[in-house]
């Protein structure tokens, strides 16, 4: 296949709350690259994450779920994710229900693809519900994806720009070879939930569709790997997190809950902790430590 055009630097896309910065407080350096035109409807971004401190882990990155899945390629040592050490070269990172925690040390050297929610199926070729959950699926368990062979080619191409070209060519070839037909109802449903930031009911969404809730559930399990209700909760909690980051030290959690569509603190705290593992107050403390008193714009 001919060489793909050089991708643009990514804007606000990314994985979890990993941020494009010279160096995060955890010692992580992240670079993000936007996909080229034909892959933009499917791919949020490509990213490279490296640790800068030698020795023991210097910090932990929170990888928040957004309904999308990804592919990971490891060029460093063992990963430590959610307290478990993982040895391997490549994985599929299925749709997550909860925030993952990645330890950062000087051996960390990862390259990844992060797909748009609901848009990985043409590349994966099976129902996303089979990959959903908190565990990574090793490349050797997904032979048809040929991730191990792709890892070898990436390993031989150390420059990030060259690796992005290899990823783009790999994805473009799989899309051409295995591409599934468009599912307009899926895009409509995802856009509707995103527009409402997860606050509106699934019943209200179904009223906008030419079919019922049972078919919507099957559509989401197949293409997203999560139920519509669970995806909506991820959106709602993500909106809450953004409000807390924007507010910084002055953030009032009662106001945050109200703006995010929660009318009682108990429900707000329950949903927030179920997804992130932190209470809203605990996350506010994290934001203050990471971004300072002014928060993040």
From TrEMBL:
Residue ranges annotated for the HTH araC/xylS-type domain, each copy included: 187-286
Keywords tagged on the record: DNA-binding, Transcription, Transcription regulation
Molecular function in Gene Ontology: DNA-binding transcription factor activity; sequence-specific DNA binding
PROSITE patterns (alphabetical): HTH_ARAC_FAMILY_1 (PS00041), HTH_ARAC_FAMILY_2 (PS01124)
InterPro entries xrefs: AraC_XylS_family_regulators, DUF6597, Homeodomain-like_sf, HTH_AraC, HTH_AraC-typ_CS
PANTHER family, per database record: HTH-TYPE TRANSCRIPTIONAL ACTIVATOR RHAS-RELATED
Protein name: AraC family transcriptional regulator
Source organism of the structure: Billgrantia tianxiuensis
Species lineage: Bacteria, Pseudomonadati, Pseudomonadota, Gammaproteobacteria, Oceanospirillales
